Amino acid sequence: MRMKGKLVKWDTEKAFGFIAPNGGGNHIFIHKTAFSNRKRTPQLDDVITFTLSKDKQGRNCAADAMYSGEKIQVKQAKSVSKFSIYLSLLFVSAMTIASILGNVPFKLLYVYVGLSLITFTMYSFDKSKAQRGDWRTPESTLHFLSILGGWPGAAIAQQILRHKSKKKEFRFIFWITVILNVTALAWLLSSHGVHFIEIFR
């Protein structure tokens, strides 16, 4: 759920300020990087819509902020990364075909599909918590699920749910987990991992 408020303080030099939410309550911290339109300089009394998030210290802050009147649907649609979705679907499809041909154990395919569903659900829960201002799921937990094999579900969730898709640091670590997982899979399917692959047969 998006919130709405008025910008009551802005430090141009430090590029941050505070929003007074409509209906009252504590002022919400906002950094310029939270705005989708960063070309515009925030001004006092600007009406802003935003989602409630948490910073690294667990404090409330604004995210996905837009000036009142801007079209959120159009901007979000343009930012969806089809590459992540196609890559995930291509990977799962390739695993499925390889399983049918007998090159990959079906149990290993089930592990990837199961973990992807669990990871997608965790992203959904975390976004819901962020919107309510509740205690968030640690990013380390999401990355752990990805490196175990849930990265296809994570990649799809980031784009479909529009969650964790704009944080560069998070995305960087996420793609590292993808590379590590795929590398481990390649080793497992090679002659070096033949003894370990038996676990899934």
Automatic annotation (TrEMBL):
The keyword Ligase does not apply. SMART domains: CSP. The chain crosses the membrane at residues 83-102, 108-125, 172-190. Keywords: Membrane, Phosphoprotein, Transmembrane, Transmembrane helix. Pfam families: CSD, DUF1294. Residues 2-82 form the CSD domain. GO terms for cellular component: cytosol. This is DUF1294 domain-containing protein.
